[in-house]
Design brief:
Structural class: alpha+beta
Strand content: 35-45%
CATH superfamily of the largest domain: Jelly Rolls
CATH architecture of the largest domain: Sandwich
Number of strands: 6
Helix content: 25-40%
Radius of gyration: 20 Å
Order of helices and strands: HEEEEEE
Length: 119
Protein backbone atom coordinates (compact mmCIF):
# COMPACT_ATOMS: atom_id res chain seq x y z
CA UNK A 1 0.00 0.00 0.00
CA UNK A 2 1.48 3.33 -0.97
CA UNK A 3 1.28 6.60 0.93
CA UNK A 4 -1.43 8.11 -1.35
CA UNK A 5 -3.76 5.15 -0.74
CA UNK A 6 -3.18 5.31 3.00
CA UNK A 7 -4.01 9.04 3.10
CA UNK A 8 -7.18 8.42 1.03
CA UNK A 9 -8.32 5.70 3.45
CA UNK A 10 -7.70 7.89 6.50
CA UNK A 11 -9.51 10.90 4.99
CA UNK A 12 -12.44 8.75 3.84
CA UNK A 13 -12.82 7.22 7.29
CA UNK A 14 -12.62 10.65 8.93
CA UNK A 15 -15.33 12.06 6.67
CA UNK A 16 -17.57 9.05 7.30
CA UNK A 17 -17.12 9.50 11.04
CA UNK A 18 -17.95 13.21 10.83
CA UNK A 19 -21.11 12.61 8.80
CA UNK A 20 -22.24 9.87 11.19
CA UNK A 21 -21.72 12.18 14.16
CA UNK A 22 -23.75 14.85 12.40
CA UNK A 23 -26.70 12.50 11.95
CA UNK A 24 -26.60 11.49 15.62
CA UNK A 25 -26.45 15.14 16.68
CA UNK A 26 -29.44 16.00 14.48
CA UNK A 27 -31.46 13.16 16.00
CA UNK A 28 -30.76 14.21 19.59
CA UNK A 29 -31.46 17.86 18.79
CA UNK A 30 -34.83 16.90 17.28
CA UNK A 31 -35.75 14.74 20.31
CA UNK A 32 -34.64 17.47 22.68
CA UNK A 33 -36.57 20.09 20.72
CA UNK A 34 -39.76 18.03 20.87
CA UNK A 35 -39.39 17.50 24.61
CA UNK A 36 -38.74 21.21 25.19
CA UNK A 37 -42.18 22.04 23.79
CA UNK A 38 -43.93 19.12 25.50
CA UNK A 39 -44.32 16.85 22.48
CA UNK A 40 -43.19 13.32 21.73
CA UNK A 41 -42.74 10.79 18.94
CA UNK A 42 -42.23 7.30 20.25
CA UNK A 43 -41.57 4.10 18.32
CA UNK A 44 -41.35 0.38 18.98
CA UNK A 45 -39.17 -0.50 21.95
CA UNK A 46 -38.75 3.13 23.05
CA UNK A 47 -39.50 4.52 26.50
CA UNK A 48 -39.48 8.24 27.29
CA UNK A 49 -39.42 9.84 30.73
CA UNK A 50 -41.99 12.61 31.03
CA UNK A 51 -41.38 13.46 34.69
CA UNK A 52 -38.93 12.71 37.46
CA UNK A 53 -39.76 14.95 40.42
CA UNK A 54 -39.13 14.97 44.16
CA UNK A 55 -42.86 15.18 44.86
CA UNK A 56 -46.13 14.48 43.07
CA UNK A 57 -46.82 16.74 40.09
CA UNK A 58 -49.85 16.82 37.77
CA UNK A 59 -49.44 16.18 34.03
CA UNK A 60 -51.84 15.82 31.12
CA UNK A 61 -50.75 13.39 28.38
CA UNK A 62 -52.52 13.36 24.99
CA UNK A 63 -52.11 10.99 22.04
CA UNK A 64 -52.75 12.34 18.54
CA UNK A 65 -55.64 10.64 16.79
CA UNK A 66 -54.37 8.48 13.95
CA UNK A 67 -55.71 5.65 11.88
CA UNK A 68 -54.17 2.28 12.80
CA UNK A 69 -52.79 3.72 16.04
CA UNK A 70 -52.33 1.76 19.23
CA UNK A 71 -52.70 3.08 22.79
CA UNK A 72 -49.88 4.68 24.74
CA UNK A 73 -48.81 2.94 27.94
CA UNK A 74 -48.17 5.33 30.84
CA UNK A 75 -46.12 3.99 33.75
CA UNK A 76 -46.29 6.17 36.85
CA UNK A 77 -45.26 5.49 40.45
CA UNK A 78 -45.66 1.71 40.11
CA UNK A 79 -49.01 1.89 38.26
CA UNK A 80 -49.83 1.45 34.58
CA UNK A 81 -52.63 2.94 32.46
CA UNK A 82 -53.21 3.35 28.74
CA UNK A 83 -54.28 6.41 26.77
CA UNK A 84 -56.12 5.66 23.53
CA UNK A 85 -55.49 7.43 20.24
CA UNK A 86 -57.26 10.80 20.20
CA UNK A 87 -57.60 10.92 24.01
CA UNK A 88 -55.98 12.67 26.95
CA UNK A 89 -55.53 11.61 30.56
CA UNK A 90 -54.29 13.36 33.68
CA UNK A 91 -51.69 11.83 35.99
CA UNK A 92 -50.37 12.88 39.37
CA UNK A 93 -47.04 11.26 40.17
CA UNK A 94 -43.36 11.73 40.93
CA UNK A 95 -42.14 9.65 37.99
CA UNK A 96 -43.90 9.20 34.64
CA UNK A 97 -42.67 7.19 31.63
CA UNK A 98 -44.39 6.43 28.33
CA UNK A 99 -44.05 3.62 25.79
CA UNK A 100 -46.27 2.10 23.07
CA UNK A 101 -48.82 -0.32 24.57
CA UNK A 102 -48.26 -2.77 21.73
CA UNK A 103 -46.37 -3.27 18.49
CA UNK A 104 -46.59 -0.44 15.99
CA UNK A 105 -46.76 -1.13 12.25
CA UNK A 106 -43.58 -0.64 10.20
CA UNK A 107 -42.06 2.83 10.54
CA UNK A 108 -45.03 4.09 12.59
CA UNK A 109 -44.67 6.23 15.71
CA UNK A 110 -47.07 7.45 18.35
CA UNK A 111 -47.26 11.23 18.41
CA UNK A 112 -48.61 13.29 21.25
CA UNK A 113 -48.04 16.01 23.75
CA UNK A 114 -47.84 16.50 27.48
CA UNK A 115 -48.08 19.44 29.79
CA UNK A 116 -47.41 20.17 33.42
CA UNK A 117 -50.61 21.25 35.14
CA UNK A 118 -50.69 23.77 37.96
CA UNK A 119 -51.37 22.16 41.33
Amino acid sequence: MNRANLIAIILGGSLLGISTLGMADNFSIDSTLLASVGEFEIGNGETHAIASNKGDEKYRICVRKARHSIPLKVIYDGKTETVASGNCADFEAMKIKITPAGKLENDMVLIGKYEHLDN
